[in-house]
């Protein structure tokens, strides 16, 4: 391996001159500063030049350095993170991932995965948030969706069913109904589900974490009005 020492006014100049002499780039050498430059007195007495040592790296070291600097694959990093947590919790599972241009969708399935969901999905949402941090640290801005046994999809279906049952009851009885407090994402499902249904108005009241949805009658409500098509097939007695 070649090694040279170069003296110049500044460290940058010394490095540039050394690279030119060796005919190499910065990533192919080890640079060691042997002496920092000093200006000296106003007459120039005591002035010191910068001295650097440049040592050529062998090919194997250069390749290893490049490999170490290769960006971490966000999907692989997230999968490892999730699997490490599941293994530490002794949860037997199958982890699947679907990736598109905007998101990473992970789904965990297994007989003992209920512990990952928690009360109203709080544990699952926390795990999803932590996985998002891992993905972002790996240099990706993709949205992370983490589900267990399609919990979120089933939760959404249950909320839609609850919303329609309550809306139909409201139209039949002429009364407004307050739903139990729920997270903002769940409230959004209720609002979106009932938007545009004649005679129905929804809005949220209360302060977090006890904010809830009110299913009320809109201005176009008429007593004994026909049930809108969207609600005709809704069974009010079906368990949600």
Automatic annotation (TrEMBL):
<dbReference type="Pfam" id="PF01424">
    <property type="entry name" value="R3H"/>
</dbReference>
<keyword id="KW-0961">Cell wall biogenesis/degradation</keyword>
<dbReference type="Pfam" id="PF14804">
    <property type="entry name" value="Jag_N"/>
</dbReference>
<keyword id="KW-0143">Chaperone</keyword>
<dbReference type="InterPro" id="IPR039247">
    <property type="entry name" value="KhpB"/>
</dbReference>
<feature type="region of interest" description="Jag_N domain">
    <location>
        <begin position="5"/>
        <end position="55"/>
    </location>
</feature>
<dbReference type="InterPro" id="IPR038247">
    <property type="entry name" value="Jag_N_dom_sf"/>
</dbReference>
<dbReference type="InterPro" id="IPR036867">
    <property type="entry name" value="R3H_dom_sf"/>
</dbReference>
<dbReference type="InterPro" id="IPR032782">
    <property type="entry name" value="KhpB_N"/>
</dbReference>
<keyword id="KW-0694">RNA-binding</keyword>
<protein>
    <recommendedName>
        <fullName>RNA-binding protein KhpB</fullName>
    </recommendedName>
</protein>
<comment type="similarity">
    <text>Belongs to the KhpB RNA-binding protein family.</text>
</comment>
<comment type="function">
    <text>A probable RNA chaperone. Forms a complex with KhpA which binds to cellular RNA and controls its expression. Plays a role in peptidoglycan (PG) homeostasis and cell length regulation.</text>
</comment>
<dbReference type="GO" id="GO:0008360">
    <property type="term" value="P:regulation of cell shape"/>
</dbReference>
<feature type="domain" description="R3H">
    <location>
        <begin position="153"/>
        <end position="219"/>
    </location>
</feature>
<dbReference type="InterPro" id="IPR038008">
    <property type="entry name" value="Jag_KH"/>
</dbReference>
<dbReference type="InterPro" id="IPR009019">
    <property type="entry name" value="KH_sf_prok-type"/>
</dbReference>
<keyword id="KW-0133">Cell shape</keyword>
<dbReference type="InterPro" id="IPR015946">
    <property type="entry name" value="KH_dom-like_a/b"/>
</dbReference>
<dbReference type="GO" id="GO:0009252">
    <property type="term" value="P:peptidoglycan biosynthetic process"/>
</dbReference>
<dbReference type="GO" id="GO:0005737">
    <property type="term" value="C:cytoplasm"/>
</dbReference>
<dbReference type="GO" id="GO:0071555">
    <property type="term" value="P:cell wall organization"/>
</dbReference>
<dbReference type="GO" id="GO:0003723">
    <property type="term" value="F:RNA binding"/>
</dbReference>
<dbReference type="InterPro" id="IPR034079">
    <property type="entry name" value="R3H_KhpB"/>
</dbReference>
<dbReference type="Pfam" id="PF13083">
    <property type="entry name" value="KH_KhpA-B"/>
</dbReference>
<keyword id="KW-0963">Cytoplasm</keyword>
<comment type="subunit">
    <text>Forms a complex with KhpA.</text>
</comment>
<dbReference type="InterPro" id="IPR001374">
    <property type="entry name" value="R3H_dom"/>
</dbReference>
């Amino acid at each position: 391996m070649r090694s040279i020492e170069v003296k110049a006014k500044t460290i940058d100049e010394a490095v540039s001159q050394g690279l030119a002499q060796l005919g190499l780039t910065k990533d192919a050498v080890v640079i060691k500063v042997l002496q920092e430059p000093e200006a000296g007195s106003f007459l120039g007495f005591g002035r010191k030049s910068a001295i650097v040592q440049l040592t050529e790296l062998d090919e194997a070291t250069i390749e290893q350095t490049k490999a170490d600097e290769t960006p971490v694959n966000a999907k692989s990093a997230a999968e490892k993170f999730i699997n490490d947590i599941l293994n530490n919790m002794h949860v037997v599972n199958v982890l699947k991932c679907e990736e598109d241009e905007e998101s990473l969708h992970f789904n965990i399935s297994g007989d003992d995965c209920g512990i990952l969901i928690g009360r109203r999905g709080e544990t699952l949402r926390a795990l999803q948030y932590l996985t998002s941090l891992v993905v972002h640290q790996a240099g990706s801005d993709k949205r992370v969706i983490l589900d267990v046994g399609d919990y979120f999809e089933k939760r959404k279906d249950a909320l839609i069913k609850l919303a329609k049952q309550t809306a139909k009851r409201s139209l039949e009885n002429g009364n407004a109904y307050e739903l139990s407090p729920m997270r903002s994402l769940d409230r959004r499902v209720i609002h979106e589900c009932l938007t545009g249904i004649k005679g129905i108005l929804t809005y949220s009241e209360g302060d977090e974490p006890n904010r809830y949805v009110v299913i009320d009658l809109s201005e176009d409500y008429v007593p004994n009005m026909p049930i809108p098509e969207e609600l005709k097939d809704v069974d009010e007695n079906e368990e949600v």
